[in-house]
Amino acid sequence: MPEESDSVGADSGSDNSLDDSLPGRRPTSHERQFGQPWDASYHDGPAPWDVGGPQPAVVRTVAAGGFVGTVLDAGCGSGENALHIAASGLTVLGVDVAETALQRARAKAGERGIEAEFLAADALALQRLDRRFTTVLDSGLFHALDGDERREYVTGLAAVTEPGGTVYVLCFSDNGPDTGPHPVSADDLRSAFDSAASWELVSIESDRVLTRFHDDNGAPAWFATIKRI
Question: Which domains does the chain have, with CATH numbers?
């Protein structure tokens, strides 16, 4: 269990039977479906989404200068995307509920000499961070949430993203064969990030997301660019 200064989002009145990172956090629909916390994915080798490096979409966006200012990696896992962004000279905070993943991310940062912060926090209560970011990355989190959770998540994103800031969402797509679990439609993204919720959906592009259970080409994905109004 992390020290109090390393965790955000605890609520002692909630069910934490599936969580071993943030006391009182409500388990997500994915955790309830599989009967284990996210942290368990890291106990017997790498998690299915832990491919040993950053996602190509992230590498491409860093090279194009798409990450600016202070950066949040929401659902950072073991930190490969956050560390790649931080290595470009930006200030990066990675948050996750899986303490095993966060410990690995911190160890990698130390080994590679990269400055990055990794914090245990609930993605469904990002406003509790009480911080603002110019750019936010979501690589593989949005598609793991159900409809109600997505509304909570997007509300929290609006609270922590500076007006005029950018959110990038890389998620499994329903467009093509051999899709990943919980594939998302383009309409799902449009519905979640609409103007009434303080967002402008700039683009949704077909992409690929690497996993440990797909071939080297990865799975069909969407890469969405969203502006905070």
Answer: 47-228 (3.40.50.150)
